[in-house]
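Collaborator request log, item 7. Partner lab (contact: R.S.) asked for a structural prediction of Peptidase S1 domain-containing protein to inform their binding assays.
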Amino acid sequence: MRFLALTLLALAAVASAKNINVEDAIDLEDITAYGYLAKIGKPLADEIRKAEEEASASRIVGGSASSLGQFPYQAGLLADFSQGQGVCGGSLLRANRVLTAAHCWFDGQNQAWRFTVVLGSVRLFSGGTRVTSSNVVMHGSWNPSLIRNDVAMIRLNSNVGLSNNIAVIALPSGSQLNENFAGENAIASGFGRTSDGKRYNYAGAGISVNQFLSHVTLPVITNAVCRSSFPLLIQDSNICTSGAGGRSTCQGDSGGPLVVTRNSRPLLIGVTSFGSARGCQVGSPAAFARVTSYISWINAQISPIIICNLQYKYAESNILTYCFINNGNMRFLALTLLALAAVASAKNINVEDAIDLEDITAYGYLAKIGKPLADEIRKAEEEASASRIVGGSASSLGQFPYQAGLLADFSQGQGVCGGSLVRANRVLTAAHCWFDGQNQAWRFTVVLGSVRLFSGGTRVTSSNVVMHGSWNPSLIRNDVAMIRLNSNVGLSNNIAVIALPSGSQLNENFAGENAIASGFGRTSDGKYLNIFRSVQIN
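Returned to partner:
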């Protein structure tokens, strides 16, 4: 999804002006984080699995094998994506939260749909506690092309049992938030490679029967020194370690921890992000996401959300109330019926209208609604006819040229959604079409210029999706996401962008106006038909 934007002459001028050595300018295709899952993660997973089956310790370059319980906060990650599984690492922050790199979930080319989180083991494919999760929140400003804001939080469905082998790691706080840690020795750990292989041919490199969790002690360097190796990529929100002596993190360690010791306790200061494509033993620094720069975002992902559902039981004229603390998908009863009834009364909540979140259409949408709908629409289109939005009319080709049909690939098949073309390479949709609180999609097929969903028009695929950073599936808040297409689609009478509010329109609430909704969905509570439709609503 890139095109040549500057000539060599222009780049040389920029380099000269900023004292950047042009020879060191980085091709993002060669950066370890970009395209990671297919380029590095999957071949590595295949080799590690094979080596573990043969059996016996080492992986971080120049490091040592780690003993069970030595790094109890270390998580191993297996990321399921379209081509298989990729390898990453993470850090256990809470009994139900694991911090990792965003590129382990979406690397700019490939979208994972599930993590297997391995805790309390020095092996990746056997032993320890193993839990799966598709509830992953990437930083809202994660940019795979520039490797910026490379952090993501994995929410586990329930708390894991803590022990000598599984423990949480402390985050910086107080005066530690102002430290830059330069000059200190830090420990990086992970399940990745132990040596380099031939460039662009990673399979088997640094993988042996000695396939245990490894670690290495590395000196933290200043960002100014690090920029000499990565002049276009290093930001204040990065932290780097020296690669002197051929000691460094390597492919497969992505997302894992960089740790210093404070008060005899490990303190997390970095999340493994990227290194030089020339290799792990060439002496180049390794770059990490600086934890202190993301502490507010991290704490927001850790904080519980209190949800109260109110229902009225007519037969007993009684209020049934359920209050939960929502930590990802984990819920437990938090308040009594009596206490919640008082809350309902005090806040003037209309009990009859109270909503059970499990029944909301957005929550669990892909499996509950999206997939059955896709199956029925496909069948109906094969038979053919007309009608879909409830009480609406069939739409003619070109009547709504901004309308996009979406087919979301997820673990159980495909789900149906809609979207709006806002630029020739941008489609706005609902966040729940990508992650619905239970299911994670890994690819959209975007259909433009067609009144049918499974045939005709322009059809492009994309896994480059950015959800609103505060999307909350349980409360259905901030339910928006942007799909980035790899290239501009051709605009015509049948495919056109729609205008967005601007100026004084930003202050309007549009109440009392008639609006048109369009889409490929149901026409009634029980019926699916096969043609794109629209309806005017008040």
